[in-house]
Amino acid sequence: MIPLSVRSAYSLLEGVDQPETWVTTAKNRKITALALTDRNSLAGIVPFVQAARTCGIQPVVGLTLTREASDPGLVLLVRHADGWRAVCRGLSAWRAGEYQQGMQFIAEAAESLVALAGSAPWLTEALKIPAWRKDKGLLYARLVPESLQRQQLLAAARRNDIPCVAANDAIAIDGKGWNAHKVVRAMSLQTTVHRLQPEALASPHAHLLTSEEVARLYPWEDAVAHTHRIAESCQFIPSLGQPVFPRFPGDAAPEEILTQRAMAGLTWRYRSMIPAEAQQRTRRELDVINTMGYASYFLIVHEIVKEAVHRGIPVLGRGSAANSTVAYALGITHVDPVAHHLFFERFLNPERLDPPDIDLDLPWNRRTEILDFVLQRFGEDHVALIGAFQTFKARGLFREIGLALGIPPDQVKKFTRQLPRGSLEQMESALASDHPVYRSMAVDRPPWRGMMQVAQRLAGLPHHFGIHPCGIAVAGCPIRDRVAVVPSPSGWPATDAAMGPAEDLGLIKIDLLGNRSMGALCDALEVLGQRDPADPEAGLPPEMAMADPETQNLIARGDTVGCFYIESPSMRGVLKRLDCRDFETLVAASSIIRPGVNQGGLMDAFIRRHRGEEEVSYPDPRLQPFLRETHGILVYQEQVIQTAAAVAGMSLGQADLLRRAMGKKRHHEDMRVHEEQFLKGAIAGGMPMEQARALWLQIMSFAGYAFCKAHSASFARLSFQMTWLRAHHPALFFANVLNHQGGYYPPQVYVDQARSHGITLLPPCIVTGRWQTEMVDRHTIRMGLQWVRHLNQETVARIVARRPFHDWRDLLRRVELHHETAAMLVLSGASDFLQPPVTAAIRRQRLWEIEFNHGSHEAHVPTLNLFAEAGAAPPHESYLDDEPVTRRIQRELEAMGLALAEHPLRLYRQRLLAQATPFVSARRIGRLGDGQSAVCVGLPVARKSLLTNKGEPMAFLTLSDRTGLIEIILFPWIIQHIGARLKHEGPWLVDGTMNQGSLIVERVSWLDAQDGEASSG
Asked: What pLDDT score does 865 carry?
């Protein structure tokens, strides 16, 4: 029997196997054809077809239309191209809830489809379509074993002379998948497996049936024979790998238009002094681009960039596209490939099969403008967001499985919080280790053992549908002719298929990324009057920032919190060790912290060589020309390609295929072929076998994690711009970083950094303040009303429109405020300016009035209870009270989640003084050398947990005190004593030894907010 109703994991929270798994299982069972018919989805078709081609099995393309979970549905199998367009358009309407229109699309191409009705009502519906009513080979009654509706369906089929077909619903490749199916159904319905109703589940026979099961469950020979006839008639496979580009107006070919624009762009970039190499490279790149058929792709991206610049929106082309002089000439990228020795083959070469990929960064708050332009420019039917599938991740998967199995939530939470982060394989390795943290978890006993078994089946499967964070799809034909389109929360249409399959089906993918640092820079330069609408780099020449001594000094000190790409703890540490001051070093610094360079001591070797502490050497003299800039060490992906070309005699295109294979960790057999090619070429070039193998292993360990130099260079430019802004306009810098809420750290860190750099932070203000945070003067910031909890932008607009107010009561009369919002305006200090000077007593009176007017039973009662001291009546305004700084910190944290008056650590001052310990501040700790001891205290603001090569947990933490940030490292031996307290939010008291700017922790204790006592671990 040919399985004609298979549902993969793309039948979300129903199927439990990937399309590829179905295909390989069918091949192993000698099944010659297989139909994929996911419920209301075509998302799995491309991987299904690709796997079927590889395994030599005939793929039958289809789907199942259903209106509800218990609906047996209508299976549609595609015979011809018209049928594929019909199911794409029909499913698009179906997912939008337009069922009648969806069926109309299906009816218009009914001759190109085979329909299998799973119930009598569906058979009746299908018989309304003339083509299916007339042609007895296009409509069948689908018989499912032990279905409650089978007898009614058989009777309806006999009445209408409709043949029956054996088409068992299959949601798992074998019976073992039944438990996993029950678990995901319970997840979907937010219940437990014990409470599931029978109609919520597939039949116990919903798997690939054996021949014995077929004979027992389907005694009708014709029903089984029909499966073969149907498969033979459904030979259609959607064309893959053929992009369909939009047409451009005019008679000129895209290749001609691109050539004209690129050559004109060279004049724009280089003025009258165009380097000969740039001209030669551009012509050579154009030959490759035009020959490979990608001229239209470049023109699409150029149209977007031109429009963005026209609107005064800066654009940053990043990634490997910055290796292209054509992209540079068109203004898509801003790194000169000639000047920085970047080569085109890393981006595109004739031996590459997949299309090029150009990513554009835009200010995050103006990205929607460009999305709207793309929609208008290329047509609503030709543009869509790209769908994405969020998959089951290890820790979250265990939590959901535990709840679905009915394990009490508190037990599930306690168990999953102890699990290590990472993939399921890493988690299993860690749990199998003898580490004390995991030894007591009893993962080999119920119920945790059962959870692990289910997790092994579900890990990596799609969990729910979402939207790609930055990808859009453009096509030269209506997108619904190629792929189904579904509604998205933003109102934009989105592809039912994920990024890779959407590209395979002919759609052109362009990544438009929202960049918060670009938004902050753009807004700041507008305030300074330096924003040139015609400048695609935000009106601040990066070259000016690179040459600025103050900017260089900040980078060299690692004082770069908030400066885009160079603010993480590891990055700031490397900058200090390198004494980084120039562009090339910053580009390298962005790459050497990557795992590929960092492991094996290569990062330390780079730093020593950069500082002149170690002699530079090269793995082979032929590598010296391109490894000179990185002191003889492989740092960039481009250098991997150059190495393979220089040593093994590969073309740059072949070498890039090798680099890509390593990066994607392809099949072992593919890697063996690449290894043989590399070694054979290296030996032919005169390198001894032992040396060639050593170089191959070095490349292998590095390439999968290496960084693209062009990408690093693109981001380094923006990092210099942001650092220049911080060096010369710190108040404006921090105001805009806070406004755009982007960065590695939580907002409190940027507030603390601003304060520690001598900037005064004023609370939000009803009288003069706005939604966003603003610079008052060079040393003062006024926090925006956006930080006040429970206050939305619409309410702020009403407040601004109705200003000025006579006093607090006038505001309450003229602006409708929820009582919680009013309380937060008082606690944040935003109402202080209505009646200066405001004392703590006046704030208490205002809070009392809010509660009195709204009734204590429904009013928000602040946890600080600031008005409790006054008793039953409001305090008299003459009652003055100097507010302690700790009280101000508390109310600011209550109202804004931020402490402006002082660092939040001030709340623990008395308790810390009681420790009688001479703590080393963040400012002082940077002066300590390796091996020196220090005791520090701080609040955790960033954490990064990982597993060592032995599968043991370790962690990097950033602590914050009033002078700055302290980086600490927790090795496995101390993690075992900490356990769940790794997530403790109160002050950490750590004692340890310095190593390369970080504190290696040897002892740790915490202050608990509840009782103020220190506890040790």
From this structure: 41
Give the pair of three-digit tokens for residue 294.
Answer: 């990608």
Contact of 69 with 39, CB cutoff 8 Å: no
Judge contact between 421 and 946, C-beta under 8 A.
yes
Give yes or no for a contact between 367 and 303, defined as CB atoms under 8 angstroms apart: no
Residue 436 pLDDT: 59
Start-to-end Cα distance in the chain = 63
SS3 category, 555: helix
- Round to whole Å and give the CA distance between 507 and 455: 34
User: Which residue type is seen at 713?
Assistant: A
Closest CA to 975 of 399, 397, 421: 421
For the stretch 244-267, pLDDT in tens is: 888 877 778 999 999 999 999 999
CB atoms within 10 A of CB 647: 25
Segments in the chain below pLDDT 50: 666, 856-881, 1010-1013
Contact yes or no for 46/505 (Cβ under 8 A): yes
> pLDDT tens digit string along 445-489?
777 777 888 888 898 899 999 999 889 999 989 999 999 999 988
- The pLDDT of residue 584 is 94
The CA–CA distances, whole Å, from 734 to 467, 518, 755, 869 equal 31, 14, 10, 37
Nearest to 162 by CA among 197, 210, 115: 115
DSSP code for 874? P
Please report the DSSP string for 14-52 in residue order: T--S-HHHHHHHHHHTT--EEEE--BT--TTHHHHHHHH
CA 716 to chain centre: 21
Q: Which two tokens stand for residue 525?
A: 């330069």
CA 895 – CA 536 distance, rounded (Å): 39
Own/partner pairs for 916-924, CB < 8 Å, 24+ apart? 917/989, 919/961, 919/989, 921/961, 921/962, 921/963, 921/964, 922/959, 922/960, 922/961, 922/963, 922/964, 922/965, 922/966, 923/963, 923/964, 924/963
Residue 135's pLDDT is 83
Helix (H, G, I), strand (E, B) or coil at 74: strand
DSSP structural state of residue 963: T
Beta-bridge partners for 355 = none
Q: Which residues contact 1009 (CB under 8 A, 6 or more apart)?
A: 986
- 639 within 8 A of 707, measured Cβ to Cβ: no
Say if residues 34 and 4 touch (Cβ distance below 8 Å). no
pLDDT of residue 862: 41
Indicate the SS3 state at residue 940.
Answer: strand
∠ CA(487), CA(515), CA(537), 5° rounding? 125
User: What are the structure tokens assigned to 446, written together?
Assistant: 């119920």
Pairing of strands 774-777, 780-782: antiparallel
Q: Convert 87-118 to b/e letters by CB count within 10 Å (16 or more is b).
A: bbbbbbbbbeeeeeebbebbbbbbbbbbbbbb
